[in-house]
Amino acid sequence: MAKKQVSLARRINILRASVMGANDGIISVAGIVIGVAAATSNGYSILIAGLSGALAGTISMAMGEYVSVSTQKDSQRMALIEEKERLDENYQSEYDFVKQRYLDQGIAPELADQATRELMEKDALGTVVLERHGFNPHEFTSPYAAAIASFISFPLGSLLPMVAVMMTPAKVRIEATVGAVLVALCITGYFAAVLGDAKRGKSVVRNVVAGLLTMGVTFIIGQLLAR
User: Fold this and answer.
1) Is the pTM of this model over 0.70?
2) pLDDT of 1
3) CB of 155 within 8 A of CB of 58?
4) In a domain? residue 11
């Protein structure tokens, strides 16, 4: 059972990084190509701008995931060291802390004491860390997996706005790109909410608004620079 739980946590970590990477790729590159398309109808210029943005964003997103998850992992390791010291210095205090956590959840005193004793005997460090810090010490998130997932998903997400802006007639180029991007943002917003166990509708609306603002600002800037 433990192996399945660890595997599930790692898969969720990779899915989270993938969804966020694709989402950022869509929004970032959509903003770039729409801004350039608002300033010029030259397809080559739009393509070069989109490719440059996709390359820079891919590296930035992957490194950002690596640094972020590595920092989280370092913090978790420090928490482990602190809890080991606490257990060595005052085991009873940590025992009482865990028991009180169960009592606060409404568990009967006898059952709370029994559960605490059994769990502490089996894995004292893991039990205390989980109750005090909220993570499983045997289940670290991989910064490499998160970075690789972002490295793959960001350029994949960026393909959509580039294809939309390059494959549609110049007269409807911007409108078609905005439409395609909004559909994609609804999808990524929904899946992000599923992974985060958040409200689906709120997540989708927030994602769409962020995309519209990004594309709106770059469109205005492109129009101003074209004059």
Assistant:
1) yes
2) 39
3) yes
4) yes
Does residue 56 belong to any structural domain of this protein?
Answer: yes
**What does the alpha-carbon distance between residue 192 and residue 76 come to, in Å, rounded to a whole number?**
24
Residue with tokens 């060291």: 81
Contact 49, 158 (CB under 8 A): no
**Residue 204 near residue 61, CB atoms below 8 Å:** no
Please write the tens of the pLDDT for every residue from 102-129: 999 999 999 999 999 999 999 999 999 9
- Number of domains making up the chain: 1
Q: State the residue range of the domain holding 195.
A: 2-78+146-226
Closest alpha carbon to 72 in 139, 117, 164: 139
- pLDDT tens-digit readout, 49-102: 999 999 999 999 999 999 998 998 899 899 999 999 999 999 999 999 999 999
DSSP-H helix ranges across the chain: 2-39, 43-89, 91-104, 109-133, 143-167, 173-196, 200-226
Neighbouring residues of 205: CB distance < 8 A, sequence distance ≥ 6: 189
Q: Is residue 60 part of a domain?
A: yes
* Per-residue tokens: 220: 């205005």
How many alpha carbons lie under 13 Å from residue 23 in its C-beta half-sphere? 23
Asked if 150 and 62 count as a contact pair (C-beta separation under 8 A), the reply is yes
| Cβ neighbours, 10 Å, residue 156 | 15
